[in-house]
Design brief:
Helix content: 25-40%
Radius of gyration: 25 Å
CATH class: Alpha Beta
Distance between the termini: 63 Å
CATH topology: Trna Endonuclease, Chain: A, domain 1
Number of domains: 1
CATH architecture: 3-Layer(aba) Sandwich
Number of strands: 5
Structural class: alpha/beta
Strand content: 25-35%
Order of helices and strands: HHEEEHEHEHH
Largest sheet: 5 strands, mixed
Length: 158
Amino acid sequence: MQDGCRFERECRVRDYYAAHLKQHRPSELLVARENSYAGSAVRADMRTIDRNNVTRLWEFKIRASYEALGQILVYVAMARRAEGNNQLIRGVIAGFEFQPEIVDTVERLNLGIELVTLSPVLALAGGVPTGPTLPAIPVIPHPPSTAPSSLDQQENRS
């Protein structure tokens, strides 16, 4: 899959999730989509804040890999630099699938990153293919046979 297509799908999933945030995270409010910081071109997919004043920076992925982990670490570091270390800031990686090493790394290194498994229903919002995609096999019609079948020939012999 090309990056642009994947990125577009991730954005559509993010936008749908953000529009329905109350259903998924009732205690959080949407602050921004495409959250950025001065002096940097990189930006988190989404920023939320909860009732306890904890800010969350989100990265949405179809399948979260090493790239997602690196991205969220950078976003959290930039936010802490910009807002000071007194503000509680957490990273969130949201995806349909997670590379197993990512889950293990977040847990073993106690990174404080939330991993949110997205519901397969959200895949429809992003036009994300679900399940294996098999090539379509055309149905080739068989011409009507005029030759007698082997059963017909056996009946004629008896």
